[in-house]
Design a protein that fits this description.
Blueprint: H1 11-31, H2 37-50, E1 55-57, E2 60-62, H3 67-74, H4 78-93, H5 101-118, H6 120-127, H7 138-164, H8 173-188, H9 191-221, H10 228-259
Antiparallel strand pairs: 1-2
Length: 273
């Protein structure tokens, strides 16, 4: 149960949640770039759909949260994505409620932000390409310059010969560039980096779920002692959910490394200044 319904929490908890969520959203929207919108929209849609599928577990039910994955991939942009998804769920399906929207946003967005602050920079460092071995000094780099120039001259000569022969000099360039890019992509990410990135993904999924459990339980406990049993149930049922979501997040990170590693280069560590 990640969506607390209206009429459960006390007024001070509702006000505090609304103030915290408003402040965080204001900061996140100031850092949001237009280029981030497509990825944020895709993950918000995934969060929206996954939250509709609940699995009974003991006296409660659980569903995927994906806030750890969103924090890892989006950084600050995860906050407005989570808010929009929760708002649509409250309006169209009655999940949670409008009065408690601030608390529900806070309970999911703060763990996502924690993942962004703690694990996002770590993932970027793990995937940063190592500097070339000859880049330590100009003396080492000097011998490399001559072959580059001569290679350029050879390419020019080949192009001129192709023109004289009536051929298109750029006919094979596209496939050659694609082959080079593919080989570079394979060389940049080593198996060790893949395993480390998978571990970071697992940690992100587990951290996002467990911090959400703490936030949910705290929100209930601060609203009154009668909610203590419900808080204990949430703490227990979220443990298996954390394991499942950790594995899922690690798999997603590994999949992205294979098909679109640029998404994990996190040129976007700008979010966590």
């Amino acid at each position: 149960m990640a969506h607390i319904p209206d009429g459960v929490l006390s007024a001070p908890v509702l006000v505090a949640g609304a103030l915290v969520s408003t402040g965080l959203l204001a900061i996140a929207l100031r850092q949001l770039r237009e280029a981030d919108l497509p990825q944020a929209a895709v993950l918000a849609a995934a969060f929206f759909v996954s939250s509709l599928i609940s699995v009974p577990l003991g006296p409660s039910s659980v569903h995927l949260l994906l806030n750890g994955l969103m924090g890892l991939l989006l950084g600050w942009a995860a906050l407005p994505a989570i808010f929009v998804a929760l708002l649509l769920q409250a309006v169209f399906f009655g999940f949670g409620g409008l009065l408690v929207l601030g608390v529900n946003t806070m309970n999911l967005a703060l763990p996502a932000l924690a993942v962004a602050l703690l694990l996002r920079p770590l993932l970027q460092r793990l995937l940063s390409p190592a500097p070339p071995q000859g880049s330590s000094g100009s003396a080492d780099a000097a011998p490399v310059a001559a072959p580059v120039v001569s290679a350029g001259s050879a390419d020019s000569a080949d192009s001129a010969a192709a023109v004289d022969a009536g051929l298109d000099p750029g006919a094979g360039e596209g496939s050659a560039v694609q082959a080079t890019a593919a080989s570079v992509a394979e060389d940049v990410i080593s198996p060790r980096q893949r395993h480390q990135a998978f571990s970071v993904g697992v940690a992100a999924g587990v951290l996002g779920v467990m911090l959400t459990a703490v936030m949910l339980s705290g929100s209930l406990l601060l609203s009154g002692e009668p909610f203590a049993p419900a808080a204990r149930v949430i703490a227990i049922t979220f443990v298996p959910l954390a394991l499942v979501e950790g594995l899922l997040t690690g798999i997603v990170v590994g999949f992205l490394l294979r098909v679109e590693p640029a998404l994990l280069r996190l040129e976007a560590a700008r979010y966590v200044h």
